[in-house]
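User: Can you predict the 3D structure for this chain?
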Amino acid sequence: MAKDSYIAKSRVSKEALKSANLLKSLNLNVIIIGELGVGKKSLARYIYNDAPIVDGISEDLLAKALRSNDRLIIKNFDKIKNFDKIKALLDVNSCKIIATTQKELNAKLEDDFFSLRIYIPPLRERSEDVKALSNLFYKEAKEVFGDQSRDMDLKNMNLDLSQNCNSLKKSIYKEYFKDTLHEDDILDILERFFYDKIGGGNDYRELLYLFDIPLIKSGFKKFGSQLSMSKAFGLNRNTLRKKINEYKGEI
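Assistant: Here is the predicted structure, written as structure tokens:
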């Protein structure tokens, strides 16, 4: 995603973008609040596309940046330890800031530093944005893996929104990557994984779950019942049932 772009398809995202467009011409200090991966940095970049980004955890770097820039983006604003020092620097210097935080600030602190706040809800509350972002990340995945002819059904894909854009992008890339794997690729991945794991006295038995669990899970999806699965796998029903009970909670 380009650093000056911001996806806005849902109502709340459009409102945030409208505020951002107004802020481009105003000299105001702004706080953007929201969970990890909701698009805080993208929105800040949309407003101040050339401003440096400094982490609030690094007090010395932040102080230096406030003295040498007229515009600055501060991430993890809530992690600043000495707010009085930063406020004094802002009062002395002409630097304007856009800050981001995952946590709500107390009312006095917010009033002392900022003229405007923007709240970005999580993706689970912005279905229109999920669709647009999924298409964007899918297009990126096709470019990364160099297979423009491949198509996948995003509607039936298991999209992970637990960390908003971060996990959504990872889940789409992972699904796309898995869809490009061949048998030799899978064998190579397993070989490398096993090389790091083996070295104990009972490795073969302890690592069998890596074969059993995905095989049984895919069998349930494809055949629907233990009887059909046991016939397809050539396993006795009791043997299959024993394995299913062994991995109970993971299947």
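Strands lie at 30-33, 53-55, 71-75, 96-101, 116-119. The radius of gyration is 25 Å.
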